[in-house]
Write a structure and sequence with these properties.
This protein has 266 residues and is α/β, with parallel strands linked by helices. The protein is built from 4 helices and 10 strands, in the order βααβααββββββββ. A 6-stranded mixed beta sheet has the order 5-3-4-6-7-8, with no helix packed on it. A hairpin with a 3-residue loop joins strand 3 and strand 4. Helix 1 packs parallel to helix 4. The termini are far apart.
Length: 266
């Protein structure tokens, strides 16, 4: 365990930065600072206490600063290294995704989760959030316009949480275009209000199942919605060719456990 001398003012600056971010008045031992950084979430309790930096030096283990640096990286998602003197500015630079909005959230298990709430959170048990993007209610004019396009090959599952429909997504076109490793989508009923689903699942060759607990379509267009989805089957086990990929020819079964995409009844 390496130890070294450090200016007392450096530790005071780190503690003050933590208090600016949480709006608190608490004091912190050096060993408590990493946990305090990890606990920051963008919520400020009030007017922060700001201590006056003292003089002198002290002997601190390197593990203390390693822990603080790890906590900063956990918060900002960067791979930067920080000297003790750079830690207070790095803490002050932290920002959080707050406010009620539609988000697409990438989880470590390959799930892309969609919800509508204040701040980043997941309904998936044990979820580890890797990244998140705001979803534009007006939708996207191409696959490359989606902010999550760069991670499309990492996604194996899509989940729409029960609050997503409250965000008012009008256009679901291109949402999962080119998601080559996507196997299933759950909560499709949350898209009942979308009016356009053009090329929504184009080139998703691994897609097998779309689950929906009830679905009322508002879609007026769905061109090539399932083109290139050769494993997507209906209740009778029929694989649909791209020539029948228009949304107007499809419906979603409303019973959980039988939520396959199926042909419209004649």
């Amino acid at each position: 365990m390496a130890v070294g001398t450090i200016q007392r003012s450096v530790l005071t600056d780190i503690a003050n930065a933590i208090r600016v971010q949480n709006g608190g008045t608490g004091t912190y031992l050096p060993s408590e600072m990493a946990a305090a950084v990890l606990a920051l979430d963008g919520t400020r309790a009030g007017t922060p206490f700001q201590a006056v930096a003292g003089t002198g030096t002290g002997v601190i283990s390197d593990t203390v600063f390693d822990g603080i640096a790890d906590a900063i990286r956990a918060q900002n998602g960067l791979a930067e290294t920080y000297t003790p003197g750079e830690m207070a500015p790095a803490i002050l630079a932290l920002v959080w995704d707050v406010g009620v909005k539609m988000r697409a959230i990438l989880l470590a298990d390959g799930t892309l989760e969609f919800n509508y709430r204040d701040g980043r959170s997941s309904d998936v048990p044990g979820a580890v959030i890797l990244d998140a993007w705001e979803v534009d209610p007006s939708g996207y004019s191409s696959a490359s316009a989606r902010p999550w396009d760069d991670v499309k090959l990492s996604v194996t599952r899509v989940v729409f949480d029960g609050d997503f429909s409250e965000g008012g997504l009008a256009n679901a076109s291109y949402l999962f275009h080119g998601f080559e490793n996507l196997v299933e989508a759950e909560g499709f009923e949350e898209l009942s209000g979308a009016t356009s689903m053009n090329q929504m699942f184009v080139s998703c060759p691994s897609l097998e199942t779309i689950w929906a607990d009830g679905f009322t379509s508002s879609a007026t267009s769905g061109s090539l919605m399932f083109s290139g989805c050769g494993r997507l089957v209906g209740g009778a086990g029929t694989t649909y060719a791209s020539s029948r990929s228009g949304y107007q020819y499809m419906r979603i079964d409303g019973v959980r456990g039988a939520g396959y995409l199926t042909a419209k009844s004649s």
